[in-house]
Amino acid sequence: MTRSAQLATPLLERFGVLAQARATAADALRATSPIDGAEIGRVAPVTPEQAAERIQRARAAFLAWRTVPAPRRGELVRLLGEELRAAKDDLGALVSIETGKIRSEGLGEVQEMIDICDFAVGLSRQLYGLTIASERPGHRMMESWHPLGVVGVISAFNFPVAVWSWNAALALVCGNPVVWKPSEKTPLTALAVQALFERAAARFGDAPEGLSQLLPGGREVGELLVDSPEVALVSATGSTRMGREVGPRVARRFGRVLLELGGNNAVIVAPTADLDLAVRGIVFAAAGTAGQRCTTTRRLIVHRSLADTLMQRLQAAYARLPVGDPLEDGTLVGPLVDQAAFDAMQAALRAAEAQGGQVSGGERVLAQQYPDAWYVRPAIVRMPRQTDTVRQETFAPILYVLEYEHFEDAIALQNDVPQGLSSAIFSNDVRETEAFLAADGSDCGIANVNIGTSGAEIGGAFGGDKETGGGRESGSDAWKAYMRRATNTINYSRELPLAQGVRFEV
Ligand code: UN1
């Protein structure tokens, strides 16, 4: 048995999913660890019939769950949070093994799940509607928020479990069951999370059967979820290409979508920036998670006067970055998820070079030790301008560096990409930072000052506009996407005045 399989096996055993992770079917999904490329499990995909049946089961659960008082629904999410706390080390380790994240980021992902559970428990007592002044005497208006229906979740490999939790914790307190199609690259962490959910449901006692359903499988399974009229909301995280297909398909049946697609996140470094902060913020956001977050910093827009100094400092920091086994203490950059990710990175670097870029780093490392895994030195590429390649999202640690002279040009460059997820400015000039945050500043769903683009907390709404898809998950009032709104007008008078002064008397 390889090392990654050796480490994964006892974890799967503790979650009680080892048998499910040892499927023998010819079409089983193969989970491999990016750490060494070795197989760590096989999971049987659902057949179309099973998928339809699980969606039906969720639908049946909805009919019961929607009438359970929201604070009681919150109790189930509280128990889920407890299970996650108890399993944090094991689940964090499994996330690291299945995705190649460093230990601290695997644990951080589970912490993010715990945080959203806590948030959702509080929210379960705060699903407020408004009362609204009526124009008619003896009338009152209000709005009520009701459970929506089955929520379908399609998640990506890079946050294999946190994305489910942002959706599931809110959906559950909002009165909705969840049907989850995890990335086919990460079926094992999905099995583990489903097992934790079932433990929480068993402790809860009278939760309707089928509140959380797992649909392991490939694209066809995702399509079933997208096309099912029983699925009221499809929350999909992944590439813009995927979103372009999912959005219209769900719209065709008048379903609701929540899309979390690509990002092409930039950091602006202005002349007054605290460079120590900027260097730390940029290195974590650009090279951390091996560049495989949707919030990863992919572009650096630096004032001309600082460009050489900042480049030197970044290059020195990059040279010290420990790349290697993500389970080892001290490693900061783990592997890319697979060879396809490596090939895409190399293709982007060659294209950037052809467009005038000066590349440093980006080469494969540790190939002798791990012939089937894909470790790279994070790359910095100084670009003469924002070319086609820079405007695309490549899911790898490539930081393109662009220079600016006037502040307005920095904002224009920042916004001149198709994506609109996250952005940041390092500056101590309040005029600049406020301009960056203003209506005609950054056009992203996330705009930060003096911190990097990645690592958002769950308390805010998470998501972005343009090709990022427009969805918002997690904190603030993102819960509203998971409920349907009813406007109620109540007449407590003995008259029947019509709105807008219309007269209609027989
Ligand atoms: C993602 O990469 O899909 O802000 C989500 C962050 C994390 C979430 C990333 N909280 O980087």
UniProtKB/TrEMBL annotation:
Residues 27-485 form the Aldehyde dehydrogenase domain. The keyword Cell division does not apply. Its EC number is 1.2.1.3. The active site is at E260. Signal peptide: none annotated. The keyword Oxidoreductase applies. One of its GO terms (molecular function) is aldehyde dehydrogenase (NAD+) activity. PROSITE patterns: ALDEHYDE_DEHYDR_GLU. Keywords: NAD, Oxidoreductase. It comes from the Bacteria. Belongs to the aldehyde dehydrogenase family. Homotetramer. This is aldehyde dehydrogenase (NAD(+)). It comes from Melaminivora alkalimesophila.
